[in-house]
From TrEMBL:
Keywords linked to the UniProt accession: Kinase, Transferase
Keyword RNA-binding: no
Protein name: D-glycero-beta-D-manno-heptose-7-phosphate kinase
PANTHER family: BIFUNCTIONAL PROTEIN HLDE
Carbohydrate kinase PfkB domain span: 30-318
GO molecular function terms noted in the UniProt entry: kinase activity
Biological source species: Massilia mucilaginosa
Length: 327
C-alpha cells in the first residue's frame, strides 16, 4: 500500500512569483458551470440610530450590481483575458436580465437557462461608511426540467472548451455534478471544482478540488499538526481519485496535495479589506494558468497572488492581468 505521508513537502516563496512569465490567455477556453447570482450593493451614509429599534439608519446614496457566485468566477477568468462561457440558471425576471447584461459587458459567452418558476438568486448588501451592515439573500432552487436541459447543453458545449470549472454554492444548480465531471474527464478536459456541503463523494474523479479550511474540516474533521493535515488531505484525495487537492487556508496561505508532492504557499501579505469572492478569484486564476499550460506549482503561486490582491478590494471583485504580473 502507498504511504500517503511519504510525499515530499515543499514551501514555495511568494518572491519566486516574479520569475513567472505572463502567459497568453487569449486562446484559453474556460466553461464555468454552477450557481449564478446577482450581487447588489447599496451604499449610504449612517448618521443616526433608528427610534424604532437599535439599528443604524442608512441613507442610500449609490447602488451597484455585480456578477456573483459562478458568474463571478467567469468574470474573473474573463478579466484575465481568457475566453469564458457561463452555463447556469436564472429566473425569468429583471435580475436575470441584469445578469445577462453584465455578462455581455464582461465579454462572457452566456448560456443562461431561464426558469420561469423561480427568482434569480440575489445577495443584497447594505454598506455604510465602507462597512457591511446587512446582507439579504433571495434564492430558489431550479426546477428538474431546467436542470435536465442544462445537463444536455453542458454535453453539447463541452467540445468547445479546454477547462471546466464547477462552482458549487449549494443552491441546487449542480445536482448533476457527478455526470459533468465524468463527461469532462472522459473528453480529456481539466475539471476543477469549488465544493460545498457535507458530501464530497459527488466530486469524485475531478482534476482539482479547491475547498477552503472550514469546508475541508467539515468533511475530514479537525487536525492537530501539519503531518495530520497532510495525511487527511492525501487520504481524501486518493479516496476521491483527484489529481490534486488545493486547500485554501486564509491567513495561512494555500496547500496543494498531489500524488507526488505537497506544496505550501504562504499568504501573499496584503491588507485584507473584504474576503468575499476570493475563492472565485483563486479558482478562476488557477484554471486560466493551467489552461495556458503553466506548471502546477507556478499556477498555484499565481492564484495565491491573485487572492492576495482581490481581498484588498470591496465586494466581489476581479484581478487584471496587469495587476497580477506587474505589466
Amino acid at each position: 500500500m502507498t504511504n500517503l505521508n511519504a510525499t515530499p513537502a515543499r514551501l514555495l516563496s511568494a518572491d519566486s512569483h516574479s520569475f513567472i512569465a505572463a502567459p497568453d490567455l487569449a486562446a484559453v477556453r474556460i466553461l464555468v458551470v454552477g450557481d449564478v447570482m446577482l450581487d447588489r450593493y447599496w451604499f449610504g451614509d449612517v448618521s443616526r440610530i433608528s427610534p424604532e429599534a437599535p439599528v443604524p439608519i442608512v441613507r442610500i446614496e449609490k447602488r451597484e450590481e455585480r456578477l456573483g457566485g459562478a458568474a463571478n468566477v467567469a468574470r474573473n477568468a474573463a478579466a484575465l483575458g481568457a475566453r469564458c462561457g457561463l452555463l447556469g440558471v436564472v429566473g425569468a425576471d429583471e435580475a436575470g436580465e441584469q445578469v445577462a447584461q453584465l455578462l455581455a459587458e464582461s465579454r462572457i459567452d452566456s448560456y443562461l437557462q431561464r426558469d420561469a418558476a423561480i427568482s434569480t438568486i440575489i445577495k443584497l448588501r447594505v454598506i455604510g461608511r465602507q462597512q457591511q451592515l446587512l446582507r439579504i439573500d433571495f434564492e430558489d432552487a431550479p426546477t428538474d426540467t431546467v436542470l435536465r436541459d442544462k445537463l444536455t447543453q453542458f454535453n453539447a458545449l463541452l467540445p468547445d472548451y479546454d477547462v471546466v470549472i464547477l462552482s458549487d454554492y449549494n443552491k441546487g444548480s449542480l445536482v448533476n455534478v457527478a455526470h459533468m465531471i465524468e463527461a469532462g474527464r472522459a473528453a480529456g478536459k481539466i475539471v476543477m471544482v469549488d465544493p460545498k456541503g457535507d458530501d464530497f463523494s459527488r466530486y469524485a474523479g475531478a482534476t482539482v478540488l479547491t475547498p477552503n479550511k472550514s469546508e475541508f474540516r467539515r468533511i475530514v474533521g479537525s487536525w492537530s499538526s501539519e503531518d495530520q493535515l497532510t495525511a487527511k488531505a492525501q487520504a481524501l484525495r486518493a479516496e476521491l481519485r483527484l489529481d490534486a487537492l488545493l486547500l485554501t487556508r486564509s491567513e495561512e496561505g494555500m496547500s496543494l496535495y498531489t500524488g507526488s508532492e505537497v506544496l505550501h504557499m504562504h499568504a501573499d501579505a496584503r491588507e485584507v479589506f473584504d474576503v468575499s469572492g476570493a475563492g472565485d478569484t483563486v479558482i478562476a486564476t488557477m484554471a486560466s494558468m493551467l489552461g495556458a499550460g503553466m506548471p502546477m506549482a507556478d499556477a498555484i503561486m499565481t492564484a495565491n497572488r491573485a487572492g492576495g490582491i482581490v481581498v484588498g478590494k470591496l465586494g466581489t471583485a476581479t484581478v487584471t492581468r496587469e495587476e497580477l504580473f506587474g505589466l
